Amino acid sequence: MQIVLASAKIMKASTSVDVPMNSEPKFKDKTERFVQELASWDKSRLMRELGCSQSIAIENKLRYQGFWNEEERLPAILAYFGQAYKYLKAETFSREDFRFAQEHLFIMSFLYGLLRPLDSIHPYRMEGKVKLQAAGGKSLFAFWKQYLTDVLIEAVKADDGILVHLATEEFEHLFDWK
């Protein structure tokens, strides 16, 4: 069984949970290219593209500019703050729970593509409709579809063929469901 869960807009800056292991995002190189471009955007453009307030735009401009600070990375499953993550209670996971999640859970992200729970990520804000030159001028919805569909299909096939979709409708646009 593979489970897909949406990321959340609100992210934590730190965690006190001791995680038994960590991993790197599968599409880290693509994310880094996106972040280089995003770091060059001014506050007004971030506000417009992300549909956010001035304070959130400033916060994320600083996040993108400081993206290579390794100390600010968190395991994806502990980085997001939203309803699903509140009830998931990953901060109470045992070593075995983390291992199971790492093998069976994907977190969908507009910036990172697909994440495994223990992938180390930086806090960020992103929307699927954003178009980036680093994505060939495409929206992130269109860009990720070509990569994520195959990764998810292969993971489901390699497991028992069952997919549990717990993500919001917005994230469905990251995949070709045909």
Structural features, described:
- This protein has 178 residues and is an alpha/beta fold.
- It has one domain (2-174).
- It has seven helices and six strands.
- It has helices at 28-39, 43-50, 54-65, 76-79, 83-88, 95-104, 140-158, and strands at 2-6, 74-75, 105-109, 113-115, 120-121, 163-165.
- Strands 4-3-1-6 form a four-stranded mixed beta sheet. The protein has a two-stranded antiparallel sheet with strand order 2-5.
- β3 (105-109) and β4 form a beta hairpin.
Strand content: 5-15%
Spans where pLDDT lies below 50 across 5 or more residues? none
Question: Average pLDDT across residues?
Answer: 93
How much helicity do the residues have? 25-40%
Assign an overall shape. globular
Series of H and E elements = EHHHEHHHEEEHE
Number of strands: 6
Number of helices: 7
Sheet with most strands: strand arrangement: 4-3-1-6
List the helices and strands and how they pair.
Blueprint: E1 2-6, H1 28-39, H2 43-50, H3 54-65, E2 74-75, H4 76-79, H5 83-88, H6 95-104, E3 105-109, E4 113-115, E5 120-121, H7 140-158, E6 163-165
Parallel strand pairs: 1-3, 1-6
Antiparallel strand pairs: 2-5, 3-4
Summarize the structure.
The protein is 40% helix and 11% strand. It is of the alpha/beta class and 178 residues long. Strand 3 and strand 4 (113-115) form a beta hairpin.
Notable characteristics:
178 residues; alpha/beta; four-stranded mixed beta sheet; two-stranded antiparallel ribbon; 7 helices; 6 strands; 40% helix; 11% strand; globular
